[in-house]
Design goal:
It is a single chain. The protein has 142 residues and is of the alpha+beta class. It has a domain of 96 residues. It has 4 helices and 7 strands. Strands 1, 2, 3, 4, 5, 6 and 7 form a 7-stranded antiparallel beta sheet that branches.
Amino acid sequence: MAENKTKANTAPVEDFLRTVEHPTRRADGMRLNEIFHEVTGWKPQMWGPTIVGYGQYHYIYDSGREGDHLATGFSPRKANLSIYIMPGYADFSEILSRLGKHKIGKSCLYLNKLADIDEDVLKELIQAGLDDLGRRWAITPS
């Protein structure tokens, strides 16, 4: 079986965030780092070259595929802020309805900028995602 391409590493999170070119995206990345730390109480860790993760879990699917993945986190990408908080198991539509301007993918939330959303609702969503994930897989704090 193929290995996951995105793995935890020891690159300094702050160094990565300082290299984000777009000033709003960089500032939002710094703020997201504060928000995720506040909600989780965990230290950030880089996953691959561009994802800031908090905690991790080991999964084993019925197919036999297994691996490790970040429990929650974000990436300040060129096109948007990608937020990894929805493991795809639960319906978070009630929380999302109060969040503000966003788009969702299978397990990601996409924001143009933090000014478009309610940060308190984002914190609630991060915690709800972790709670849901923790009911399925054991989460190891980072």
